[in-house]
Amino acid sequence: MDGNGRWAEAKGQRRLEGHRAGADSVRDITRASRELGLEAITLYAFSSQNWARPAEEVAGLMQLLREFLIGERSEILDNQIRLEAIGDIDKLPPMVKEPLDELRAASSHHRAMTLTLALSYGGRESIVRAVQAIARDAASGVLRPEDLDVARFSGYLPTAALPPLDLLIRTSGEQRISNFMLWEIAYAELVFTDVLWPEFRRQHLYECLDVYANRERRFGLTSAQLASDV
Ligand code: IPE
Ligand code: MG
């Protein structure tokens, strides 16, 4: 979800106003995703690296996160959405962590859609954490190194319970990954749009899904193989 700051600056507003408008996009995209019947969406809301932004901006983002968790609580629960979080959640201030933990627990049995917030999240950091856990299991004899494969490794990542990543959308014209789901994007389709996140609403999501639907996903195979293997 990129481009909040540029959106605000272009209007002569403070960056935080961009984040505020971006929260409206989050609401619209979450609703649209649920209505479309998507199994899971993950929103990259705050990276491990974002902590280094000016303290005032970080504080504003934390306030907006709290407002989102409190303001959207009943709609999330009413719509059978399971709220999850990935990232270094313990770094979040209690004003965010408490409503986050509460909503995770209250929605944990919901199955209509999983809405995951990536908070204090980094793809490389997640991989390092997985390797730490793998090393512990190897040292204690729970895991034999020769038994480690792609599927087992995936099981150590915070996304283990999510379905495979099909589509990654980045807004605001930047064509880079910025430390998001580095392992999980292996065969994801990437869609880059110039639309700034505060202007990214459901019609843009539909357009991205249309682009996705017209891609041929080969997973290393040939087109002919895919055609014969109906
Ligand atoms: C993305 O918008 C939101 C967060 C990182 C929280 P930015 O704040 O990165 O917006 P730009 O890139 O400065 O426009
Ligand atoms: Mg940015």
Q: Per CATH, which architecture?
A: 3-Layer(aba) Sandwich
Mean pLDDT: 98
Specify the helix fraction band: 40-55%
Major pleated sheet: 3 strands, parallel
Total DSSP E strands: 5
What is the CATH homology-level superfamily? Decaprenyl diphosphate synthase-like
Bound molecules: 3-methylbut-3-enyl trihydrogen diphosphate, magnesium ion
Morphology: globular
Structural class by secondary-structure content:
alpha/beta
Tell me the radius of gyration.
19 Å
Q: What's the number of helices? A: 9
User: Order of SSEs, N→C?
Assistant: HHEHHEHEHHEEHH
Oligomeric description of these chains: single chain
Beta content: 5-15%
Number of separate domains = 1
What is the CATH level 1 assignment? Alpha Beta
Distance between the termini: 36 Å
Strand order, sheet with most strands: 1-3-2
Low-pLDDT segments, ≥5 res: none
| CATH topology grouping | Undecaprenyl pyrophosphate synthetase
Provide an overview of this structure:
The two termini are 36 Å apart. Helix 5 links the parallel strand 2 and strand 3. Helix 2 packs parallel to helix 3 and helix 3 runs parallel beside helix 5. Helix content is 47%, strand content 13%. With 230 residues, it is of the alpha/beta class. The strands form two sheets. Strands 1-3-2 form a three-stranded parallel sheet, with helices on both faces. The radius of gyration is 19 Å and the shape is globular. It has a single domain, classed as Undecaprenyl pyrophosphate synthetase. The longest helix has 22 residues. The structure holds 3-methylbut-3-enyl trihydrogen diphosphate and magnesium ion. 3-methylbut-3-enyl trihydrogen diphosphate binds next to helix 1.
